[in-house]
């Protein structure tokens, strides 16, 4: 068996006993290409060079991270190249100037859109995380074309439905598209029939292929319906889980933010129409996060400065604040005592008025009962008097008859 690493193995190439490696004076020249067959010394040197390249890449990324805010990309390149020039005199290294230029170009390219989505999550595995990542990708404008298209679609659709009904838009769209296709098909048919002299049976329909494919196609299969139902259920489940987490205060900061947003929407709903509020909230959702991401350093610095000023003011006026708190506490105690007395007085007054009302109702009931009894007794007395008058009249008549007979 022939040892391919031994000096006697040539295979058509002249073997060289020592590695012919040249070092360059500048990083741009790099290292001479290796011989066709590497010896053991050249393998060791290649491993050392790879290790050196990894160290230089780590150092380059660290310098870029530390100086990204303070220095411009050109100054970063000059600093990195100066460090590389100092290290080239010690050991042969591989040229990394092109990598640094590409890194700087990547920084400049992503300066306006620095947001990057986290590791991709499948919708079926974790619907809530998938929805959160997609929403952040849209509102942070990770892909400007997607975000701009969705923003224009929402604003345009809301604005159109503000002045026109959905039925009006759909019927108008159907009318326009169908009319244009009708004119196109008939002009194509009659032009071929008249100008070309073709028979009607030989003229092809301009949408014949589409019609044939449409007849053979099944628009909604059972698998598609099952998939759509599953996606809808997962979507609703993800939204419901997020709402329950907010209501049950899983995270206090998120919940208080949600309460603030809900209160703002509640207030705006009493002042603005639904469609106007949707347009305003859409613009805010697509503009404010992006502006904060672009000016995050300035905004964070401004917020930190205000927090520091508030902390200093609280330290300076700590005693006065404590005095105010004690005064407010005493005033609150007096206020609570006064409210308690007022509540008790109102309770007693309400009870007194209730008792008087019950007495008055009872008196009214007694008076009504007595009046009814009098009304019942009055007809009885009248009937008795009438009977007495009849008896007296009969007696007088009898007396007159007796006197006449005598």
Automatic annotation (TrEMBL):
Say which domain of life the source belongs to: Eukaryota
What InterPro entries is this protein classified in?
A: Reticulon
Q: Name one GO cellular component term.
A: endoplasmic reticulum membrane
Q: Which organism is it from?
A: Absidia repens
**Which protein is depicted?**
Reticulon-like protein
Q: Which PROSITE patterns does the entry link to?
A: RETICULON
Q: Which UniProt keywords apply?
A: Endoplasmic reticulum, Membrane, Transmembrane, Transmembrane helix
Protein's UniProt keywords contain Cytoplasm: no
Q: Which residues form the Reticulon domain?
A: 135-312
* Spans through the membrane: 166-185, 263-288
Q: Where does the protein end up?
A: Endoplasmic reticulum membrane
- How does the UniProt record describe the way this protein sits in the membrane? Multi-pass membrane protein
């Amino acid at each position: 068996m022939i040892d391919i690493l031994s000096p006697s193995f040539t295979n058509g190439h002249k073997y060289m006993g020592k590695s012919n490696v040249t070092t360059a004076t500048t990083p741009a020249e790099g290292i001479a290409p290796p011989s066709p067959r590497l010896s053991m010394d050249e393998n060791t040197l290649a491993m050392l060079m790879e290790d050196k390249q990894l160290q230089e890449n780590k150092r380059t990324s660290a310098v870029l991270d530390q100086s990204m805010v303070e220095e411009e990309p050109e100054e970063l390149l000059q600093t990195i190249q100066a460090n590389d020039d100092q290290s080239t005199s010690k050991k042969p290294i591989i040229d990394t100037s092109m990598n640094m230029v590409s890194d700087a170009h990547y920084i400049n390219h992503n300066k306006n859109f620095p947001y990057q989505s986290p590791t991709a999550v499948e919708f079926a595995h974790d619907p809530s995380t998938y929805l959160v990542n997609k929403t952040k990708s849209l509102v942070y404008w990770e892909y400007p074309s997607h975000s701009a298209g969705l923003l224009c679609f929402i604003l345009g659709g809301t604005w159109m439905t503000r002045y026109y009904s959905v039925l009006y838009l759909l019927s108008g769209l159907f009318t326009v598209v169908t009319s244009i296709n009708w004119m196109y098909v008939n002009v194509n048919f009659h032009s071929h029939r008249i100008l070309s002299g073709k028979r009607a049976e030989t003229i092809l329909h301009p949408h014949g292929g589409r019609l044939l494919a449409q007849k053979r196609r099944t628009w909604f299969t059972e698998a598609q319906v099952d998939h759509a139902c599953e996606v809808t259920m997962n979507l609703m489940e993800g939204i419901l889980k997020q709402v329950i987490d907010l209501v049950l205060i899983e995270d206090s900061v998120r919940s208080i933010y949600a309460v603030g947003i809900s209160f703002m929407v509640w207030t705006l709903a009493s002042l603005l129409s639904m469609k106007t509020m949707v347009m305003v909230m859409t613009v805010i959702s697509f503009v404010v996060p992006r502006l904060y991401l672009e000016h995050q350093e300035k905004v964070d610095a401004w917020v930190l400065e205000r927090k520091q000023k508030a902390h200093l003011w609280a330290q300076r006026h700590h005693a006065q604040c404590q005095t105010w708190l004690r005064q407010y506490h005493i005033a609150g105690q007096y206020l609570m005592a006064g409210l308690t007395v007022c509540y008790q007085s109102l309770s007693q007054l309400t009870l007194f008025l209730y008792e008087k009302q019950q007495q008055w109702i009872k008196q009214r009931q007694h008076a009504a009962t007595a009046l009814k009894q009098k009304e019942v007794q009055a007809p009885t007395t009248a009937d008795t008097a009438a009977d007495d008058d009849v008896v007296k009249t009969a007696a007088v008549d009898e007396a007159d008859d007796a006197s006449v007979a005598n």
